[in-house]
């Protein structure tokens, strides 16, 4: 298995580098000398401007009707609400998007990569990318695939230029792409190929071809490999009656045959994006060109002047099988920006950032949490560093409160530049999504990086973002307003005592970005999409007074303890995970017990540091077995829980420390990195029973 975002997001896999985020001692002493006094004067001279706002921050949504449906101010057109479908008349499908990029960038650089982490990035222009995509698509037609939205092709690769060339090659002939997530595991891949009856899969390398050839579905006829495969694999395929051909050769066939493009219509399907539920088989979310274009357009509209343009470079490292990453690509192509792919190993990620110097990146909270933790632990060694760093942050925090976010104060030059340089030194826009982000971490990142960071909330069923915080709103712990492409309402969940009339309820979404249903799964579609076209997300939310949405709970995953109290374990987990010693946490309880318990995956570095400082020897696994370490963590999370207002019956009474991360590979996380609760419960059954037994 090659590294994926799960390593970055949850992993403990070595990042090999220990950044010192702070300037050296000499620099620090220099800062201390001129520090505070100069900073004030300098900041005054450089006259910062607060961000330009698209609407009043105290009144961020339009509310209509008896159901209190919330809309974006940006969806109002000539006094009427009209959900956004597209931003530009001539750009209504993904096929159009790529062409627009070529035009507005004036054939600028489009896709960048490097074969090894010591080499500089190489670039392919928009025209070349368009041509290669078309040739590849033409080659598929030559191989016998009929153009049209009914033709599905699998994509089983980590992010690389061929992913995009293949994807846009398919769109050029109205075909649709079905990403096979490398971490879904072989069973899920087989399930998806069988359900979609895919005959052709574009496959990254020998290893992935081999895994598909192990007990292949009967419909699979052809593997197109991006990298060379071994003779052994080719022979195995031949014996199984499956054709193998290189990506390059398909392009060559296409060049020779030159089939005319068959552009898609907005209502045509462009992808089936599988999301694994917490139980059972993955569900295929059917999305059209319009869904994806509407979503990306909604994001761009809300970003206003901050939207990507042809001077931007984005780094691509979150899996393209996630809609968050796909939408980010679409947004960048629409503006004619360039995309550079990370070199494929997350251990080299920071090097890639330095070589690429991206201006935009999508991000997941875990990346921020790691940077935050690293900086904090870097500070623990020196009181002087801590003093300066805190002075720098508090100066920038003061500005943030006044609506000013920038990276050119003297504090940035002297103290914070290392944090900024670790991201390449040019970042101006970050879109965070996929999981809740702690307010303290978000504030810290806004101050330390001095760039625009917006947070989104969304689901694959809505082609990814549904709400987005607006640039200029620097408050935290909410997910912003609905995008101009959709409307949001709350509906009652009586079981959990949430009533829309009291401003709380299940978040329901309707709009041009909302999917058409799950592929071949009418039952699950009926559960999720009601007769009026509202998608029921299962998340519980509340609209704050100023119209921003806050996620407060999850509809499922609650249980009752024996004393009759309801427990929402995810709420507790979101508090415990803020402990520096905790990497991941699973809170568990049974209705026959009177208390909750937990499984904790300790943070390798911070636990190691704690142990070293006290002369405690041992590997991570050994440390996890030590009562002293367990007590340390239990005390820390209990303290955090107390501060966050957890009731005593919500706090775990005991924990089990597990040395290995929950991951997609070991089946404990969904591909969108949410905990698979039933699987976790099964996996840790013996430990959970043991912990409960000991408590009695
Ligand atoms: C919010 O804005 C809407 C439309 O712009 C307006 O009709 C409404 O009165 C405003 N509400 C408040 C409380 O200012
Ligand atoms: C691109 O966007 C940046 C940031 O908003 C802006 O400073 C720059 O002028 C824009 N460039 C063009 C060519 O529009
Ligand atoms: C500072 O912000 C500007 C504008 O957002 C950006 O162009 C520049 O690259 C940033 N510098 C660093 C060091 O992040
Ligand atoms: C649009 O994309 C964002 C970010 O990728 C995602 O969070 C959101 O759910 C999407 N919304 C829809 C309706 O597709
Ligand atoms: C919106 O309202 C919430 C809750 O009252 C508040 O915490 C937040 O600061 C407000 N946002 C802005 C931009 O004023």
Automatic annotation (TrEMBL):
Enzyme class: ligase
UniProt keyword annotations, A-Z: ATP-binding, Fatty acid metabolism, Ligase, Lipid metabolism, Membrane, Nucleotide-binding, Transmembrane, Transmembrane helix
Chain ranges of the AMP-dependent synthetase/ligase domain: 113-519
Enzyme Commission (EC) number: 6.2.1.3
Lineage top rank: taxon: Eukaryota
GO cellular component: endoplasmic reticulum; membrane
Reactions catalysed: 5-hydroxy-(6E,8Z,11Z,14Z)-eicosatetraenoate + ATP + CoA = 5-hydroxy-(6E,8Z,11Z,14Z)-eicosatetraenoyl-CoA + AMP + diphosphate; 15-hydroxy-(5Z,8Z,11Z,13E)-eicosatetraenoate + ATP + CoA = 15-hydroxy-(5Z,8Z,11Z,13E)-eicosatetraenoyl-CoA + AMP + diphosphate; (5Z,8Z,11Z,14Z)-eicosatetraenoate + ATP + CoA = (5Z,8Z,11Z,14Z)-eicosatetraenoyl-CoA + AMP + diphosphate; 12-hydroxy-(5Z,8Z,10E,14Z)-eicosatetraenoate + ATP + CoA = 12-hydroxy-(5Z,8Z,10E,14Z)-eicosatetraenoyl-CoA + AMP + diphosphate
Pfam families: AMP-binding (PF00501)
CDD domains with a match to the protein in the record: LC-FACS_euk (cd05927)
Record keyword Transmembrane helix present: yes
Any one GO molecular-function label of the UniProt entry: ATP binding
Role noted for this protein: Catalyzes the conversion of long-chain fatty acids to their active form acyl-CoAs for both synthesis of cellular lipids, and degradation via beta-oxidation.
Protein name: Long-chain-fatty-acid--CoA ligase
Origin organism lineage: Eukaryota, Metazoa, Ecdysozoa, Arthropoda, Crustacea
